[in-house]
Write a sequence for this structure.
């Protein structure tokens, strides 16, 4: 098995992640913020070692992984890189999702 793929975040995914952290900082405690950060780190490590561990859409070749229950991360594999396309808040309408 390869030592790990490089994870690259799109501008959209970074903005969505930033918005999520801002929301948590305003409405929740440090505990929830830290819990999300740890989960993202753990999942990032998993997909860097095995990018096909999570389900893939046959329609657009994008993987989907639920981060806790309120957020979903979407990514695709390109050569030796994993491109994080979106860090979507599941509280929003799916029509707002940008992949």
């Amino acid at each position: 098995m390869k030592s790990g793929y490089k994870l690259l975040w799109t501008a959209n995914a970074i903005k969505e992640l930033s918005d999520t952290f801002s929301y948590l900082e305003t409405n929740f405690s440090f505990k929830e913020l830290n819990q999300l950060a740890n989960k993202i780190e753990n999942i990032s490590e998993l997909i860097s070692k095995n990018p096909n561990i999570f389900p893939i859409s046959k329609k657009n070749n994008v993987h989907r992984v639920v981060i806790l229950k309120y957020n979903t991360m979407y990514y695709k594999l390109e050569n030796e890189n994993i491109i994080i396309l979106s860090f979507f808040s599941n509280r929003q309408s799916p029509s707002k999702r940008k992949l």
Summary: The chain has a mean pLDDT of 88. The first helix runs from residue 11 to 27. The beta strands are 6-9, 63-67, 71-78, 81-89.
